[in-house]
Amino acid sequence: MSVVDESPLAAAGRALNRPIRRTWTARGGVHRGDARYGLLFLLPFCAALIVFQYVAIGLMIRNSLFSYSFLGGTTKFVGVGNYTTLVHDPLAIQSIEVTVLFALGSVLLQVPLGLALAILLNRPGLSTTALRAIIFSPVVSSVVVVTTMWTFIYAPSGGLANSILAVFGIAPLKFITSSNEALASVIVMTLWEEVGFSMVLFLAGLQAIPRDYEEVAALDGAGALQRFWYVVLPLLRRTTLLVVVTTTVFSFQAFAQAEIMTNGGPNGSTNFMVFNIYEEAFTLGDPGYASALSVVLLLIVLVVSLTQMRAIRSRV
Amino acid sequence: MSSGLVTMTGTARRAPVGDPRSRTRARVGRGIPMAGRSVATVVILVVFLVPYIWILSSSFKTQTQIFANVSPLSVWTFLPQSLNLSNYKTAIFTDHVARALLNSVIIACAQVACTIILATPAAYALTRLRFRGQGLIFTVILLTFMVPGEAIIVPLFQIVSRMGLADSLSGVFLPWVASPFALFLLRQAFLEVPTEFDEAAKLDGAGHLRIMLSIIVPTVRPALVALMLVTFLFSWNAFLWPLIIIQSTSNEVVQVAIAINTAPGELPNWGSVFAGAVLATLPVMLLFACLQRYFVRGVTLTGLK
Do B290 and B270 sit in the same domain of this protein? Predict the structure, then answer.
């Protein structure tokens, strides 16, 4: 048998002293059996995802067209009835306003503060690492723990906040017992809890900027402020929009602050959308209406996220 | 950090002292002056540590002591006069915080394990295999990334109840084990592993399962650790869903067990609430202190959609 007659596979097998199995074909190549494996590997994940996300969303939309109770009783088809009620419901409108205000306030405070902290702590060293960890600790603590702490800090009498204000001669504030101050108080507390997260994102963004850019500007005679404004800030645009998106999404998810600290009040001034949904479904026992409210929340979050993400994509 | 510059030939050249480049680098590096920096440091320390210190020290005081010490402000506001453990006893025995801690540990560990078991093969299938519909599946999964859990609590409650898992520990973590975030993170990590390893293993006759477990997984260990930590954190800190799905106190998670539910005017026993809060946050704080690097990496990856 000449060398030419022997198939390459057989020759290789002879050379390596073991049989070479043909695991590929002329058409399809190395990945021919992949679909089977792909299905197997993806099945558990996708099955769970479909059940707990897609089926849930579909069920929610369907439920929003009905009026029923968790405790049994009659299920009545009301079509868009829940939605028309929603549009005229003062609580629903209020919850949207409160949540949007909360998101706005949080973004307007967290972005500059997170950036300032990141700039301040953007250097190596044990002390900065320790400071960063300290600022990040409230992010690691749960909302429940933070809200619990601050409920007592904000207590009008016996609370730490007023006693600290007293040192500076400032009269005690009502904080969460006043409908004027409650939302602002919650915004400040949430800022305390979440600014570490924004700081970390900004740090990542700052560290991705090569130092040469700033040096070139300095060589051209730019002062520190000019360098920041014309060099650093534009390069941080993507990160800034990222911080805005994450802060907004977190704001729309707010619940524990209302449930634990303020019970949505006083006078509904902290009636967040998720809190309103929870109350309607589980306290007032109208899951159909709560589903309609949830659909609205989902739509708002999707629209806001998509708009902000499109802004990121178009600018970079 | 050296003060040299990298030239076209790739070598680092140390710039001579009188060179404007080295002076510029020094000027750019100094940034904010020392005095401002010290003030900022003190402010940061005070703002971020004082609430914790107050809660921690007050957890060792009786109600009357807390009120007596808070105003006017003194050093005793932040230091306990004696280590009174009665609040902790109340929290552990009367409020069942110990049981709740155990439940939270079980749920968090189960959630981490299930999340990884589900997401790892899925990420492998999307990066290492090639078949029709891959992109579509990935898009479908990624779409759910934008759906906040809080928006679907009502239908989830019905689905989980119909599965017979209401008021059970499994019902707490099961809806969240298919995590698009986990899939995204692992997919990114897998894409960084060169395919040469796969090829070599295939020549040796290894199947996909073997390749995944013996080659890919050990190589992406940092990403896996980051994922485990972030998932543990989310599970431990979860509040709304456990509040909804658990009814009996023996199945409570720690966040719900310590949550107070009263109007701001009528506050309960301050000390035991503080003790509960300390117990609820201590495990995660310790975890964070030891593995800070991975937490931060996990958080940064959250943002990179």
Answer: yes
Mean pLDDT of the region B15-39 = 60
Tokens of B211: 């390749």
Cα→Cα distances A41→A95, B120, B204, Å: 42, 9, 22
User: Does the CB of B217 have a partner CB in chain A at under 8 Å?
Assistant: no
Q: Which domain holds residue B76?
A: 32-84
| Contact B71/A at CB under 8 A | yes
What pLDDT shows up at residue B32?
A: 60
Same domain for B281 and B185 = yes
Note whether B124 contacts A: Cβ–Cβ < 8 A: yes
Listing DSSP states for B249-276 in one string gives: GGG--HHHHH-----TTS---HHHHHHH
CB nearest A56 (choices: B130, B159, B274): B159
Q: Do B296 and A282 touch (CB under 8 A)?
A: no
Residues in chain B, total: 305
- Contact (CB, 8 A) for B54 and A160: yes
Letter for the amino acid at B84? N
CA distance, residue B109 to nearest chain A CA (Å): 17
Residues B266-294 pLDDT 10s: 567 788 888 889 999 988 888 888 887 77
Q: Do A160 and B72 touch (CB under 8 A)?
A: no
Q: Taking CB atoms and an 8 Å limit, are A298 and B158 in contact across chains?
A: no
Min Cα separation B275/chain A (Å): 11
Q: How many domains does chain B have?
A: 2
Cis peptide leading into residue B16 (ω within 30°) = no
Q: Where are the alpha helices (DSSP H) in A172-286?
A: 182-207, 211-219, 224-227, 233-235, 237-252, 256, 273-278
Q: Is the ipTM of this complex over 0.85?
A: no
A-B contacts (CB, under 8 Å): 293
How does residue A32 score in pLDDT terms, banded at 50, 70 and 90? low
Ranking A126-130, A186-190, B129-133 by mean pLDDT, the lowest is B129-133
Kindly state whether residues B199 and B225 are assigned to the same domain: yes
d(CA B237, CA B255): 7
A81-88 and A287-315 helices, crossing angle to 10°: 70
Q: Which of B129, B156, B237 sits opposite A142 (nearest CB)?
A: B237
Report the pLDDT value the prediction gives residue A23, as an integer from 0 to 100. Answer: 61
Classify strands A76-77 and A66-67 as parallel, antiparallel or unpaired: antiparallel
The predicted model scores a pTM of: 0.83
**Nearest Cα to Cα of residue B52 among A199, A129, A140:** A140
pLDDT attached to residue A107 = 95
Comparing CA positions, the residue from B206, B260, B269 lying closest to residue B64 is B269
B158 contact residues in A (CB cutoff 8 A): 59, 63, 70, 287
Please give the span between the terminal C-alpha atoms of chain B, in angstroms, as a whole number. 32
Are B235 and B212 contained in the same domain? Answer: yes
CA distance B63 to B65: 5
Cβ contact B303–A204 (<8 Å): yes
Same domain, B80 and B110: no
